[in-house]
Amino acid sequence: MANNEEQGIEIEINDEDFIFTSELIDVTFTELNNEIIDEIEPIFLQPSNKEAKKGEPVLIYQYATAIYSLAIGSIIDDTSFNYYHNVNTNNGSSGSPLLNKNYKVLGIHKAKEEYNDNSFKQNIAIKYSEVEFAIKILFNNINIYSLEKAKKSAKLLSKTEMRTLKKYGLKLKLSSENMNKPKNIIDLNQNNLNILRKTLFYCIF
């Protein structure tokens, strides 16, 4: 974030920097090298070491329409990768951090859901813990296997894995509605849960 509304920051990414995009969790991660950090002197938010609970107050700093603003709300529910919240967000606020009362990061705001009449239903944020999980796995693979092999770890699911998802009524890119389904399936074994976990890595670099 720039120090003021008149200041813009342009970051040039080189081939050595680690960057990936996951469609499922709707996050793009970009590594900042030391030269960039020294140049722009960013202030980093700290993650929360606890998951949010239903009813917990939360807030979002946003920069939609080029105006800084703060909005306050609470957690409505949490399911699988997502928090559902009622913070009043503006269009263009996707990517804003979802913070707890101590200004620690709980998640990343990504979408708004509406009813058929276009009235507000709920907002969705990806849990920071899920983002951190994906980053750590892929980043550790770089340290162990090099960047090229780490990219291969973010492979597409196999046909067998895709059939398993289909068997349980799940899509590769899960919606908030069918995120609930795994919990309601009694015979979903650990292997199938691992397959669902791997959908985190349906990524592109």
TrEMBL record:
Domain Peptidase S7, chain residue ranges per copy: 86-121
Domain of life of the native organism: Eukaryota
Listed Pfam families: Peptidase_S7 (PF00949)
Record-linked SUPFAM superfamilies: Trypsin-like serine proteases (SSF50494)
Coiled-coil ranges from the UniProt annotation: none
Cited InterPro entries: Flavi_NS3_S7 (IPR001850), Peptidase_S1_PA (IPR009003), Peptidase_S1_PA_chymotrypsin (IPR043504)
MF annotations from Gene Ontology: ATP binding; RNA binding; RNA helicase activity
This protein's name: Peptidase S7 domain-containing protein
Native source organism of the sequence: Neocallimastix californiae
